[in-house]
Amino acid sequence: MNIKEHYEISSTAWKYFRKYAEQLPLSDDQWNSACKEMIDICNQYGKDVAQFASGIMYQTMLELERLDKRMKIAEM
Predict the structure, then answer these.
(1) In angstroms, rounded to a whole number, what is the distance separating the alpha carbons of residues 41 and 10?
(2) What is the DSSP string of 2-16?
(3) In this predicted model, what pLDDT tens digit does every residue of 14-59 receive, in sequence order?
(4) What are the domain boundaries of the chain?
(5) Is residue 16 within 8 Å of residue 37, measured between CB atoms?
C-alpha cells in the first residue's frame, strides 16, 4: 500500500470538491466539465489505487449532486 498515493488522491478529491462546491448550483455545462474532470482524475492513477481513486471521486460527485439539488430546491 502506497500511503503517499492515497494522500494525493484524497487531496485531489478535496480540491475538486471545493472547486465545484463554490460554484453551486451547477449548470449543465458545469456538470459536464465536472464529469470529464472526474474521469481524468481517476485515469491518472495506476492499477494499485484505481479502485480507491474511483470510489472517493464517485462519493465526492454524489455529495456535490446532493448539495446541488438542495440548493436548486431552495431557490424554487
Answers:
(1) 11
(2) -HHHHHHHHHHHHHH
(3) 999 999 999 999 999 999 999 999 999 999 988 888 899 999 999 9
(4) 29-76
(5) yes
